[in-house]
Amino acid sequence: MYQNKRDKTRKQIINAFMELVSKYGIKEVTVKQIAELAGISRGTFYQHYYDKYAIFDDQKQMIFQEIIIQQNLFLAKKESALRADLLEGKFVSKILDIVKDKQNIVAFLFNHDDEFRVQASDFFERINQKTLTKINPLVTTKRIEIISAVIATVLIKFIELYIFYPDKYDKAFILKESRELIRVNVLTII
């Protein structure tokens, strides 16, 4: 019961934050405004978040954590199965499912968090490096870093197109293009 109430309050805070930031911009929004719109006290706000910027961090961490869980499931597979799944786009498909499930939050982060693209790029580079190292531990670190950076950059753009232009860049299109990207870049090291 306590956890349900805590989750409900967090959701109220997040919704109020997103509404206010969308309307006025992050610099203009105060904790007092967020608390008032959420129907809570400032003290309750601070029980959940250090400051208004911590809401951005919380939302990014939630999304990144879900992706890490999926990556760990993929990395637990044997190398041959991991390669096949990667080349079939199964991991990218899971990422797109997570992004679609959190579409409003992801769109909000793209639009209002100046650090989101850089942090997401760093995040995807790290997980790509981990995956590529498992596929072929003999490849040089420099090569893995470069390929990981390229894939991360393109993946961020794919996610952005998928979120903001779903009619033009639907999941099937993104998966087709990502499989080609992976085939061209990753096959060179497998």
From TrEMBL:
<dbReference type="Pfam" id="PF00440">
    <property type="entry name" value="TetR_N"/>
</dbReference>
<keyword id="KW-0472">Membrane</keyword>
<keyword id="KW-0812">Transmembrane</keyword>
<feature type="domain" description="HTH tetR-type">
    <location>
        <begin position="7"/>
        <end position="67"/>
    </location>
</feature>
<dbReference type="GO" id="GO:0003677">
    <property type="term" value="F:DNA binding"/>
</dbReference>
<keyword id="KW-1133">Transmembrane helix</keyword>
<dbReference type="InterPro" id="IPR050624">
    <property type="entry name" value="HTH-type_Tx_Regulator"/>
</dbReference>
<protein>
    <submittedName>
        <fullName>Transcriptional regulator, TetR family</fullName>
    </submittedName>
</protein>
<dbReference type="InterPro" id="IPR009057">
    <property type="entry name" value="Homeodomain-like_sf"/>
</dbReference>
<keyword id="KW-0238">DNA-binding</keyword>
<feature type="DNA-binding region" description="H-T-H motif">
    <location>
        <begin position="30"/>
        <end position="49"/>
    </location>
</feature>
<dbReference type="InterPro" id="IPR001647">
    <property type="entry name" value="HTH_TetR"/>
</dbReference>
<feature type="transmembrane region" description="Helical">
    <location>
        <begin position="144"/>
        <end position="165"/>
    </location>
</feature>
